[in-house]
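User: What would this chain look like folded?
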Amino acid sequence: HVDAAAARNLRGFVQRQRARVGCVPTDRTITIEASRDPLGDWQVVLLSPLGRALHLSLRLALEHPLRERLGYRPQCVPHDAGILIRLTESDEPILDLFDGLTPDNVRGMILDELGDSALFALRFRQNAARALMMPRGAAGKRAPLWLQRLRGRDLLQVARQYPDFPIVAETFRECLHDHLALARLQALLRDLAAGEVEVKTVRLELPSPFAA
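Assistant: Here's the prediction, encoded as structure tokens.
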């Protein structure tokens, strides 16, 4: 009975999404919807089942063109089921998120933003600690996390002056291969250009069931 009830709830959830948007996100259909948040700002939600690694890669690729179009850096939050973009100073939402992204230029866009990302700072700090490059505290005492972050930030500022510095190069390699999905994103962009993947955009008064 529990399984049957869960199945009915899930079926109803999907049906409500289809009724509001006209479709549900799949590996062949990506939905982008815009609605106002409780503060009156636009929130743009990209919905897809393609996973956090691809969505994080796409978020990094989108940050630079969005910043150029808007004049400020919008809040972008990747998730397993999509990306939430909050536009705080925009009269109109941006729905053509894939405009200008190609399989050839997306790697460079990601690399331009990756070095300033929280992911890169975290992985660099951990790699530097393993390489015994981080200052060590007193014997038997562990440095508090906030102090580790400050030390890691200071070391990263110096190391980034040398792009071929081994720990910097290793951190870029680790982020690209272990935490991002560049090849899958490039394949998605090729499918979009070929018309094999559809992007459906919609403006709503309230978020759809999936976005909510």
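Residues 2-21 form the longest helix (20 residues). If you want, I can go into more detail on any region.
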